[in-house]
Amino acid sequence: MLQMQLFRILLLFSLKLAAAEEKYKKLNLSRINDSMYVVDASFYVGSDEQQINLVQIDTGSSDFWILDKSFCDSPTSEEEENHNGYSNQESCEVYGSFDSNNSDTFQATDREYYIEYGINSADMITSSGQLVSDQVSVGDIHLDELYFGLVTNTTSLPPTLGIGPISREANLSYYNFPYQLQREGLIDVVAYSLSLGQSKGELLFGAIDHSKYNGTLLKTPILQAGSGGTQVLLTGVALTNGSSSVFNETINEGYIYFDSGTPISPLPAKHFDDLFKHHGWEYDRDAMSYLIECGREGEKSILGHTLEYTISGDIVIKVPFEQMVVTVESDGKCYSTVAVTDDESFSFSNDAPFFLAGDEVLRNAYVVYNLETQELAIAPAANNPEETEEDIEIISEDFDIPKAKDYSKFLEYWSTAPPSVTDYAPSSTSSGSISGETGSTSESSTSEDIAPSSVKPLTLWGFAVFFCQLLI
């Protein structure tokens, strides 16, 4: 009898341990057009599992949005074709669309969905439609209910899975994809880790893959100076050429924003104008970047440089310049993804609240985003991260990582207060069923359902759009 009881106890423990070990979710990513990372697997939305393809991963925004069926049949404007690269019908054939009439679990709300990417009105690209909810599956992830934007007008394809903080949601405040994973019991902590290789990537929800980085992961707080997001303390920027230093600037109060949704990394022109011009590069005002005919000596001369970012005092990310030059086959030109700005300093100001680390920087870093503790953990990326053998550890509530040297600086900008969210009631025309919570406000909600900003924090988003169009 005692042996049987012991066996049952051990069996139960083993089952619980196995369940705990599997409590993370993984999405494989692919880099397309040298400009963005998309989820390898298709998304399936609604009770009838309508297919959505080539969904871009974006840590710089926070909403999941897809095309509504009505978009496919609508006339294509010149602006839509210029930005999206396809007619509306062709866009639906490439990316897929969603017909809410075919899903028994679909719920509309009375809330409009609208997101702008950019800051200057001339640079804005937008997506608009309605906030809705339905079941969503991708890979081995299944969510019974997820809010998302069902878009009827857009100049910002492909469809996007924004996984940033709730504070970055577009004019609304609800539990987005990472939070819903936790609410439905698929992960323990609202956290994820991102590894971007040269052609492939890996996104782990609720876990860390220790094989994807070199050295030690160090954590640093997310500082909400300026608009909300995932910016952290930037304490130094340097440019080297072999053993020679081109410049090395220590920063008293700078911030850098990690954004996987853009191919660019803007930096002050004063450090780069002379360098590019000296090697024969020309400035393109439309692209807001320097370019040169590929293969010229001036291109080769600049490829040996290395850009170094120092974060919170002792996290150093080195970015080879050869990774910041992209070839556009259509015109035979090589473009730098360092987008120069008129800013005179890396330090914080109202005009230039922070700098941006795009994909080419993130390919050289391993970043863990913990949205509950409002911290990032960062380390240099492993060599050839696409070829490493997995070493996965679950992120639990008591999981801890050493602090970076300057972790305690400017903590007045750090807040771990729970996000304010609203459960939006179904509209009078909605069909299907929705959870009993809908229409109520969570404990951490406020009476306002408007998030702090609906604008993605990219002062140079116009270049990003132009740049991606060149690569399509």
UniProtKB/TrEMBL annotation:
The keyword Signal applies. Residues 1-20 form the signal peptide. Belongs to the peptidase A1 family. Keywords: Disulfide bond, Signal. GO terms for molecular function: aspartic-type endopeptidase activity. The active site is at D58, D259. This is BA75_02869T0. The keyword Signal applies. GO terms for biological process: proteolysis. Residues 39-379 form the Peptidase A1 domain. The lineage of its organism: Eukaryota, Fungi, Dikarya, Ascomycota, Saccharomycotina. InterPro entries: Aspartic_peptidase_A1, PEPTIDASE_A1, Peptidase_aspartic_dom_sf. Residues 427-448 have a biased composition (Low complexity). Residues 421-451 are annotated as: Disordered. PROSITE patterns: PEPTIDASE_A1.
